[in-house]
Amino acid sequence: MFVRIVKMGFQPDKIDEFLANFEENKAKIRGFEGCEFLELYRGKDNTNQFFTYSYWKDEAALENYRDSELFKKVWENTKVFFNEKPEAWSVDKVVSLE
What we know:
Blueprint: E1 2-9, H1 15-30, E2 35-42, E3 49-56, H2 59-66, H3 69-79, E4 87-91
Antiparallel strand pairs: 1-3, 1-4, 2-3
Helix pairs in contact: 1-3
C-alpha cells in the first residue's frame, strides 16, 4: 500500500468552490483503478488549509492517476484557488490501528 498526503492552502473566498469541485469528483477519484481510500480533512486552527489523505495499491497506481485526464481536470480546477504552494508526502503505512 502507498499513502499520499497533500496539504493545500486556499484563498478564503475560494473555499466553497474548491469544496464543490471536490464533492463533484471524489467518487470518480475513489473509483479510479488502484485508489483504495480517499478523505479530505480541514485544518482546525487554520481553516484555509486542507489535506487529502489517500491510499493507493502501489506507487504505479498513483502515477497512473496523476497521468490521467481525471487528475488533470481536477488539478486544473483546484490550483487556481491556492494561496500557498501545496506540499505532498508519500509514505508507507507501517502499523494498522485496527
